[in-house]
Amino acid sequence: MITAILFVTFFALLILGVPIAICLGLSSICALCYAINFVPQFAALSLNIIATNTYTGIAKFLLLAIPLFVLSGNIMAKAGISTRLVRFIDDCVGHRRGGMAITCVIVACFFGAISGSGPATVAALGIILIPAMIKSGFSAPFSEALMATSSSIAIVIPPSIAFVVYASITGCSVGDMFMAGIIPGILMGLALAIVVIIEARKKGIQPAHPRRSMKERLLAFKDAFWGLLMPVIILGGIYSGIFTPTESAAVSVVYGLFVGVFIYKEVKIRDLWELTVDAAKTSGGIMLIVASASLFSYCCTLFGISQAAQALLSNVSANSIIFLVIVNVILLIAGCFIDANSAMYIFMPIMVPVAQMLGYNTIAFGILVTVNLAIGQVTPPVGVNLFVAIGMKIRDEAKSLLTGETEYVNVTLPMISRAVLPMLAACLCVLLIVTYIPQVSLLLL
Predict the structure, then answer these.
(1) Residue 330 and residue 317: Cα distance in Å, rounded?
(2) Distance, CA of 106 to CA of 188 (rounded, Å)
């Protein structure tokens, strides 16, 4: 009965469109209230455990990296790094067929290494790159779908908030997770670039501009250099032992301020309050999800749900191949409905012990999980990146010229869902590689 209350309440609230943090927290509270009042086995418990476990879920030094990485991403976005990155990458590959869309993929990887957030990457780059891709000959649904899918790489390329959350649950090294995510992130980018090349040839799309001279490329590189250096500083500092992953988040904030205020001079002192408030709102939303998911996970453990699911998973998956198939199917379905952080708190306490029992590397398993959940960011009905891309007001240049009024691109969910299918297929190919060849993720360790 307790299990039914927990999950029926959760899914009922989810279907009603209630925010995921409230779904997790409220369903947990309902289950605990029922257990304390009607199940003698749990009568000795107090409702104080709700506050205790909610606080315990977020009172971890490691999680301090989340608000700091969010703030540094906001600062670098405000500093104009997105425009400089687009200009530099476009100068390098824009002379090729479909060059503007390839630029989108590459820039999303670089900017993802700065922001660590898929939706933030869509918001920062979409306003620049989606109109440019449409102008170069790609359809509006394809352009928005590519922007959304490319931005999902942000949670695979370090520094990733999802990696920090996974490490906080499993106790593995954040630095190792960061390093392990580099090759899978690059593979996802290459897979999307292949999709772009095929689409460009199919539609007969021509290069956006002639080949740039070496001088022009060097000037663009010089302008974008300080933004490109940020991931190098973060990863280099961690692996040289200069600072811990959490300290690297603080360093990224200081570095972002230095670049934004003194190098690019795009960030003003008066902007800091707005940037901090915006980062606090984003971080607050993430931490509320983490706190609620921690309580939900506690309920699953307290009521024996996690142990039963873990035993069932161990019995069903007699070998690692079957286990990995089950894990991928579960996570791909879960990614359609819930965000990456919630999914990790719900499923990792169940799946990770089974993976360890079967001899699967914990770091490699974390990459597998994160790639699954990155794909979830662009799978309807709750693909958050898709909705951010659709929600952007992109001016339709052709219609505006004809009507003389400001017209906007109108892309619906069915349209972008069809356009994203070949990109999902490409990402699934990468998922298969990192699933069954874990050495790919561990190559740099």
Answers:
(1) 13
(2) 10
**Are 316 and 351 members of one domain?**
yes
* In a shared domain, residues 4 and 127: no
Q: Residue 398 pLDDT > 70, yes or no?
A: no
- 84 & 8 share domain: no
- Domain co-membership, 349 together with 361: yes
- The tens digit of pLDDT for each residue in 153-179 reads 988 988 788 888 899 888 888 889 988
Collapsed DSSP state (helix, strand, coil) of residue 420 = coil
Residues 69 and 214 in one domain: yes
Task: Give which of 173, 178, 148, 175 is closest to 160, Cα–Cα.
Answer: 178
Residue 358 one-letter amino acid = L
79, two tokens: 């500093």
pLDDT digits (tens, 9 = 90+) for 228-240: 888 788 778 877 7
Please give the tally of structural domains in the chain: 2
| Domain that residue 136 falls in | 47-442
Tell me: the pLDDT tens digits for 55-81? 888 888 778 888 888 888 788 778 887
Residues 24 and 111 in one domain: no
Q: Do both 61 and 2 map to the same domain?
A: no
